Amino acid sequence: MTDRGAGRVGRGGRPTWAGRNYTLLTAAAVITGLGNSGALIAAAFAVLASGGDGTDVGLVAAARTVPLVVFLLVGGAVADRLPRHRVMVAANALNCLSQGVFAALVISGSAELWQMVLLSALGGVGHAFFAPAAEGMVLSSVRGEQAGRAFAVFRMGVNGASIGGAALGGALIAAVGPGWVLALDAAAFAVAGALRAFLDLTDMPAREPGGGLLGDLRDGWREVVGRPWLWAIVLQFSVVNAVVAAAEAVYGPQVAEEHLGGARPWGVALASFGAGTVLGGLLMPRWRPRRVLLAGTLCVFPLALPSAALAVPVPVGWLIAAMFVTGVTLEVFGVTWMTALHQEVPEEKFSRVSAYDWLGSIALVPVATAAAGPVEGLVGRPAALWGCSILVALLTAAVLCVPDVRNLTRRETVVASAPPEEPADRPAGQPTVKAPSGGSGEGAASAS
Question: Would you call 200 helix, strand, or coil by DSSP?
Fold first, then answer.
């Protein structure tokens, strides 16, 4: 289904669906996407430059992930109790400060491992509060039939920034050193925070005070479990993200080193995935499937291809093609997922629902990457990779057995929110209609 309103332009040269808040949020996300992608590479090289080894690099990376897992649910509840843009600005300020100190220590040559671990952990705390608030703000900045288009353009901008940021960061690390790339990331957080401070909330609906932090968390849990399509897909991606991370972070580099010619072709394969996401983003503003989750879930099946290609292993050209196709189809899923959340989840509960989504998406990733080596030792690398591929396919097929996943249809207008228990006026077999929701966090992949 195509959208005939694609070319309409409003005041200031923006499309009619790109309001002021949406434009500010997208610009800020692109800026931080550029900084974050380079900073992730820079942090690893900073550890190595200080005399650390691969274990130390992993420790610094884990120091960012663990606080993210621990504080995500709290961050979601806080973002639904306080003005979301203030939570986002505060989180950006914390990330700016932690990255600025990290950069100063690296530039001065005095960075120690414990300092880098602590500063990475502070960055993880900031992201835990930022991500759920960002989900809510992006989804509440668009309305009605243009939501799918807006989400596609937002994600395309973020994906493009991630690709460009990684390339630029790698070049700058070689030219001026990792410390200055970290400093640029700190500056990017400062600029993004300033942009988000100018968000206009005059049209945002007032949110009633909740029943305390624990009460809000319980309420968010009820919102998730009350929608079979939501918890089924979150459970699916808790495992899918974990096995894909194990395949790409642990097995992929080994296969590339032994069979594909080393790091350069592996880097090209990863870049082709990013290029695929950009193409998927270009496709989605024009394609608006009626059964949004059915179309999106069918597009998850190709995610099994890269693991299978590595298990064979196929020539590098075929691997690049598999990664590209996966990028395209996974972006289609991402946009349909955001569209479903926007349509079905009450606006005042966006953030706590997205916190459970984020938690499901990342909770098993550290476990899977840590277990990848022992599993390889037990069954061998090809069998482990085939197992990753089979799990993706089986879980995706299982999700298609959920009626609401197959039957949830796109609506041109969003109906006022109602609790999950109330059927609202809807066709038989359809989930309850909800007010706007959904979005993409900054610098990390959601299940969605």
Answer: coil
CATH number of the structural domain spanning residue 54? 1.20.1250.20
Number of domains in the chain: 2
Domain assignment present for 318: yes
Give 129-162 pLDDT, tens digit per residue.
888 777 667 767 766 566 667 777 787 788 778 7
The predicted pLDDT at position 318 comes to 93
Alpha helices in 261-416 (DSSP H): 263-283, 292-298, 305-311, 316-344, 350-362, 365-379, 381-399, 403-407
pLDDT in the model for residue 208: 56
Please report whether residue 228 resides in a domain: yes
Residue 2 belongs to some domain of the structure: no
Higher pLDDT among residues 368 and 91, named by residue: 91
pLDDT given for residue 206 in this prediction: 55
Same domain, 174 and 240: no
Looking at the structure, tell me whether residues 314 and 254 fall in a common domain.
yes
State which residues form the domain around 118: 19-145+158-200
Are both 299 and 372 inside the same structural domain? yes
Of 275, 273, 253, whose CA–CA distance to 264 is shortest? 253
The residue whose two tokens read 């997205």 is: 354
pLDDT value, residue 308: 94
| Cβ–Cβ < 8 Å for 350, 437 | yes
Q: For residue 440, tell me if it sits in a domain.
A: no
Integer Cα distance of 119 and 136 in angstroms: 27
Q: Which residues contact 18 (CB under 8 A, 6 or more apart)?
A: 10, 26, 150, 153
Answer yes or no: do 249 and 173 share one domain. no
113 with 64, same domain: the answer is yes
Residue 9: strand pairing partners: 15
| Locus of tokens 């879930």 | 297
Helices (H) and strands (E) in the chain, counts: 17, 0
Range of weakest confidence among 12-21, 46-55, 94-103:
12-21
> For position 44, what pLDDT does the model report?
75
Question: Is residue 437 a contact partner of residue 341, using CB atoms and an 8 Å limit?
Answer: yes
Residue 416's pLDDT is 39
Tokens of 41: 């590479």
